[in-house]
Amino acid sequence: MEHLEKAKEQFKSVIESLKAEFTNIRTNRPNPKMIEDIEVEYMERPTPIKHIGSIGVEPPRSLLVNVWDESAAKGVASGIEKASLGFGVSVQGKTIRVNLPELTQERKDELMKIVKKTAEEFKIRMRTQREDIRKAIKEIKDEDDRFKAEAKLQDIVDGFNKEVDQLVDSKEKEIME
Q: What is the pTM assigned to this prediction?
């Protein structure tokens, strides 16, 4: 049943990609991932913020970026502002404070649409992979083995779809709080 093991691995990969995608969707909780990959000009080349300084969370809705080179602070602040994420940015020496505004209900609804659309795209990816594996299963000669493999494949898909739904529910709670 190597086809089923292959399916599990592919679906796990899809779930991990979805989790990564969801971390990029903003909630009311600050998360360093929101800004760590923003590229800013440093030493005349674009550099991700995470390579210029450390990023920490300051509850309830702030991030602190402590740059290692004070001359980079203004560039980091400018890069965050240019990213148009709607964050308030202020510089104090080597520290850049990034304030996240409170999410409006309208914005929360918008984010939920994005979450649901993203989840559906990932479910479609899994369906496509399921069909590829189903084609391979149809080549199994023994009819009983073929039916068992198809049933197990469907169980695997159902389990991963449930996991996607749980991720959506979890993200919804995070956004709506």
A: 0.71
